[in-house]
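pls read this protein.

:::
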Amino acid sequence: MDQVTAILDRLLALHPREIDLSLGRIERLLAALGNPERRLPPVIHVTGTNGKGSTTATMRAILEASGARVHVYTSPHLVTFNERIRLAGRIVDDARLIDALDRCERANGAEEITFFEITTAAAFLLFAEEPADYLLLEVGLGGRLDATNVIDKPLVSVITPLSMDHERYLGASLAEIAEEKAGIIKRGVPVVTAAQDDVAFDVIMRTAARLGAPLTVFGQDFTAYEEHGRLVFQHETGLLDLPRPHLAGHHQTVNAGLAIAALAAASCLPAIEAVERGLATVDWPARLQLLTHGPLVDDCPVGAEVWLDGGHNPGAGVAIAAFMGEQEERSPRPLYLVCGMLKTKDPVGFFRPFHGLARHVACVPLTTSNAGRDPFDLADCARAASLEATPFESLDGALADIRACSQKDGEAPRILICGSLYLAGEILARNGMAPK
């Protein structure tokens, strides 16, 4: 076991529950550390259900294309924990991460604190001690009581599309979830939101009005759409004709528009040349990522088209299925899903958009989480969404079955590996493609 893993395992034992939303514990620890959250570069705070990571990655690409030094905090990671903390363009190295975690562990002592809270405190230490122009800060879960919500005055608060997810912690209705997400809105700080369901938008609008936070809304104050293979961004200041984002899927047009509007609201949108370079180079692994080579690809049928996406809720299912439908129209192939999912997710809601599109669902266990849904249960959920499904004891078993079906049919399939970022991380590690 390496030293980073050993420390992280110790930190997991500091609180009996992995998730326990509160600000008291992290505020106590940050005070013991000298309040590093007060010495951060200007912050752009991002919450939402779908698209947080892609929107953040797009903002980073644009800012870095302009020459800015950018810190980034995201979660969860795919292959290594270090991916969560990016210091001025580079994923934090083991030595600096170990030092920050060690200082946080000593400052916390034997007090209860969740894993996310203490690792967020470590990230704040690192961000405060390394010069940068901006910090892109992604919420871990919810917003109001999330450990990142200790920033008093960000440049802008960003809310990506909201849908049902994490109901156990955030509430059983979209209105309750929106209340939690809108908790990152600060008095007088601009808010930029994606288009939302009416229920969610009403919550965001009321919260912004109550706090005197200027609100900018996709579809009202700005828009982004594809035209002739380009991205058109329209805002009160005019129209930008831009390249499509490097990320696949029409939903990435929305995410790119949200990223541009957020930078504009924060008064840090660079010249159009940097925006163009950023859109053309943005990278965010396991979001409709086409795998073209590697050991995992070699285990798939010859000629297979292999896609990877970590989306895991109904909203993500809609976006991913829409993209797969476009691929089917462009180049028909039998679509096979290989899916693993956490127990806390809504598999039926995720699977439903694939009805009539997917030939079969191979359900596999998650090997890197103890909270994975049993493949037999997951297969029942897929059948409840009117899909044919088979449970497998391993990913290898699922791929072997797809190879056999492909050989029998004489068709090179399209394979979508999906349902969990844990599964996506396993795939990237197996394929030798850890994020850099």
Summary: The mean pLDDT is 94.
